[in-house]
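Appendix B. Extra example for self-study. Work through it before the problem class; the solution is given directly after the inputs so you can check yourself.
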Amino acid sequence: MQKLVQIPLNQTVYIQEIQCKENVKRRLLDLGLIQGTKIKPIFKSPLGDPIAYEIRGTLISIRNEEANRIIVKTR
Amino acid sequence: MGLTVKSMGSQIFSKENKQKYQYQIAIAGNPNVGKSTIFNALTGMKQHTGNWPGKTVENTTGICTFHKDNYLLVDIPGTYSLMSNSEEEEIARNYLCFTSIDATVVIVDATCLERSLNLVEQIMEITPNVIVCVNLLDEAKKKKIEINLKQLENLLGVPVVGTIAKKKNTLHTLMQTIEKTVKTKQKQKANVIQYSQEIEEVILNIQNKLVYDDSQTNLQKRWCALKILDGDEKIIQTIEEKKQIKIRNNEQLQTYLQNLRKEKKFQKQYMRDEIICTVVKQTEKIAKEVVTFHKENYQNKGRKIDKIITSKIWGIPIMLVFLAIILWITIVGANYPSQALSMFFEKIQEYLKTWANAWAMPTWLQGIAIDGIYQTVTWIIAVMLPPMAIFFPLFTLLEDLGVLPRIAFNLDKCFQKVCSSGKQALTMCMGLGCNAAGVIGAKIMDTPKEKLLAIVTNSFMPCNGRFPFLITISTIFIGGYVTNGLQSIVAAIVVLAIILLGIAFTFIISKILSKTIIKGNSSHFILELPPYRKPQIGKILIRSILDRTLFVLGRAIAVAAPAGAVIWLLANIMIGDSSILSFIANFLDPFAKLMGLDGYILTAFILGLPANEIVLPIILMSYLGKGTLVSLENSYTIGEILIQNGWTILTAVNVMLFTLLHFPCSTTLLTIKKETGKWRWSILAFLMPTICGIVICMLTTAIYHIIV
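Solution. Structure tokens for the complete assembly:
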């Protein structure tokens, strides 16, 4: 079981489960982050948190606290 | 058959407006898709656009005339969805649901169509009269992304128009489509999302239990049923209030729901997931059919810039250098026009005096009108206009480029520690221009707690009204130690240091407040980093000067005029030997001395409540024992006067500290009341920095006296 936060930069993975708080989860769902969606960490902020991810062709920044609750698989 | 445009700043519900338009059109869309640009192009209204999410935080309206019909266009806030709970999304959703709009234009981004379609699908569920406008086709072309608009139209079942905001003819097509839609009496048949069969059955059952006729309103029964099913309390409450539809008191419905929820898959949160997943899957399917990418890695260039701007070593220094350069250009560039303006106004003042004498105007009237009101107002124009006319366009340039979200991204970690989010960095940046603007901008924060934090701490960022003062004092007292050529650079560094101090205070106070009086959920930082865009320089100049500069200036003048009269009266009405002003100053003097200031300085700060920029003129006026504001352009002369009146390096430092840390101007305080709805936050925003300032100044004074 891998967490999104553990994924090295530029490795594409797929969402398996989002275990974040309800409001965060909703926001992520709104951006199209559902089970099976491709996601790829692109770059980190200077302090290492948050990290910018590529989701459906756009760059979205997510905090490590949240990324720690997003379960992914490499498929 | 021209696209005649006409602009008007207006409220949606104002009476005169109502007679002036035949159709009402909502403009919706994701943030960053050029919504405001299209809106501006259609209405000719100079609404400010920027390349960062959450730019439009309120509905803006404008009139567009097409084929002799007037259309009221309403630019609603950019959102990704209508399901979440941020204020922007609520404004957008409530508008779409509860206003009688004739059609809704949903603007989507051609470069990331898939994500944008989510909103389209959701809006189609609310109202069938939707027109999809695929914008930024030029950018898509550059990135070699091809979109089959015809196919998209077939799949969605609503009209689809491709636009390039810069090209008028594409906008003409958009207006034609809007016209066609509103003039057709029948509602369009949009292909709304079909959920799984069992959900569809439940939707139908709920729909049948809702008693109202939806043919006359925008609020579709199907959508109502969906909202009831996913248990969105807020929207259910609003529907009940606005539409007088019984939901929570509808016994039949509630019993049905209770039974339904016994099954796990029909429980609220499972329902929500199921609904949104179906929408996302549907948009994925549509996007696959209509979008073709002819080039892989179309974002490479932007990514390279991102790697540098957000790199571990360079990220933060680059930002600081950016800020320093902007400040430096502002400081140096503003000098000359400022001087020219004030000379110009002085000349006019001389003429005015001559005329007034020729017409035998009484002295007191001359005093109030010319020495009081005219002089204060022109002083503010001469001091404020040039730096604003330089600062705002530069800031807008960063905004247009898409740099601001990156700043938020870089700084988020720091804000996390004080239970806020990096978005606060954006409201702080706006605060550098004008605190009132920063307070309004706090709407972009996701939770009420973060919003309050951003609002009450905004005045820790020195606004444009305080810059000139800071610059003058630092040039005289700290720049004085170096040779002439370096003075402006030293001044820029000092001002930067003051800003950094302001940032430090923002953090400390935010932390304290979030642990004490402003408790609540800390939130997330899910923010889009939009692609870099080439800014349109010409537009930037016009926009930022017209919208921001003149707006801020106008407001400043509105408060400065009466303040000018009051100040003149205070300085000229004598009690015995001294003016009321000196009286107040003498009264405050002992206390001010404790802070390393003097009575006049403190009085000037108090009288400067309407506008910070008149603090220095009041100080000079009192020192010179004159009855009118003193405008001196030569910082050397100002320095002489200040030193003669007992200013030391300590006074200068404390004045700068107090300039940073004191009550915000009255406009900001009023804006806080307006934004939060409660006076107590205005009072907090007034007291907090003031107390900080008094304590800090007393500390530095004590330390100085111990050392020296």
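Self-check: The interface with chain A takes residues 80-81, 83-85, 111-112, 114-115, 118, 269, 272-273, 276-277, 280-281, 283-284, 303, 306-307, 310-313, 315-316, 409-410, 412-414, 416, 422, 521, 523-531 of chain B (CB under 8 Å). If your reasoning did not lead you there, revisit section 3.
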